[in-house]
Amino acid sequence: MKDSRITRRGFLKGVCVGTGAVLGNSCFVLANTNATESMRKFHLAFTQKVQFETAQKVNLWSPLALPHSFQTPYNLKVSGNHSSYRIDNASNTPILHATWDKGSTKTKQLQISFDIVSRFTQDSFDSTTRQVLPSHAQDRYIRTDGRIGEIARTITQGAFTQSQKAKVIFAWVAENIPQQEARNTHGIRSIKDKSGEVIIRGEDLSATSVFVGMCRAVGLEAYEGFGLKMDGGRYSKAKLDKPEFYTRSVVKIGNAWVPNDILLAIEALGTADSKNSRAISELAFDTWDNNWVLFNFSRDIALKDSQALLSTMQSVYGEIDGTKLSSYNDTHFAGYVIA
């Protein structure tokens, strides 16, 4: 799909005011809406600082919340000492791209804020899901062959409908991928099952990647969703000290797109003192709790005005004179989410 500009007006749809969270070196979460409400409101503000005195040009690309039936982002505000910025839409991935030209101040600053309304969703999404999915699955690291394919075909031998296949795969992943292995982790790594066998290896993987890969291996259309988990939500008693990168998924069953949260299912099964752990794990198959901000459904993202091919767009990416800035180096990046 070609890059296309999305308008500020398209992003600003909505009528509510919200609360939010902090992500960075000093972290906290604030919310004045009840975790069990069907609709929740958040306010997010991201601050980025890059210090380079001799740079010819600095570029920062930041993900934005995706307009969807699950959520409505609005009231986008951008400030800082950048030379210019624009909003692009690469493969249905809303991205804010800010630039600093030669001669700009040593410390480059960018502040982005927006409000968002998030809705509790069960069973299926409306037709807007197809409109915001990538035009095709271009995922270098989501394998459908090898061990992923072998397991998926074996465990679904007795399943005849799309729903049966998806539920069998979901249950297998929930039972067999340990919670530590399941996490949404940046970088190249392997995910192992409880026996220690490598199930999949790649970049920016989670148990969601395993579920999506297995679904595709048996002919089910499925996608990962990338975003930011704001708090524990209605199903977790554990307090979330700061927002965390989090993945969920959608799988097409018949003509409906069904929401899934395999990470919630794995967490529930790993909670020994929870009487409802099995029920929560099963419910997670067709549920998205509204404690999460969805950025996009995309992998292998080609940025406009860059040679980079990003595995995912879940956090800020930067370049100085065409060379990648390291997000793991605090002297290059300082990023926060505040509210």
Give the helix/strand layout.
Layout: E1 4-5, H1 8-11, E2 19-21, E3 29-30, E4 39-51, E5 58-63, E6 71-80, E7 84-89, E8 94-100, E9 107-119, E10 121-122, H2 128-132, H3 146-155, H4 162-176, H5 179-182, E11 188-192, E12 198-203, H6 207-217, E13 222-229, E14 244-253, E15 256-260, H7 262-269, H8 277-283, E16 287-288, E17 292-296, E18 301-302, E19 309-310, E20 317-320, E21 323-324, E22 334-338
Parallel strand pairs: 2-4
Antiparallel strand pairs: 1-7, 2-3, 4-9, 4-22, 5-8, 5-20, 6-9, 7-8, 10-16, 11-12, 13-14, 13-17, 14-15, 18-19, 20-21
Description:
By secondary structure, this protein is an alpha+beta fold. Helices cover 19% and strands 35% of the residues. It is built from eight helices and 22 strands. The protein has a six-stranded antiparallel β-sheet, with no helix packed on it. Strands 2, 3, 4, 6, 9 and 22 form a six-stranded mixed β-sheet that branches. A four-stranded antiparallel β-sheet has the order 15-14-13-17. Strand 11 and strand 12 form a beta hairpin. Helix 3 packs across helix 6, helix 4 packs antiparallel against helix 6 and helix 7 packs antiparallel against helix 8. The radius of gyration is 20 Å and the shape is globular.
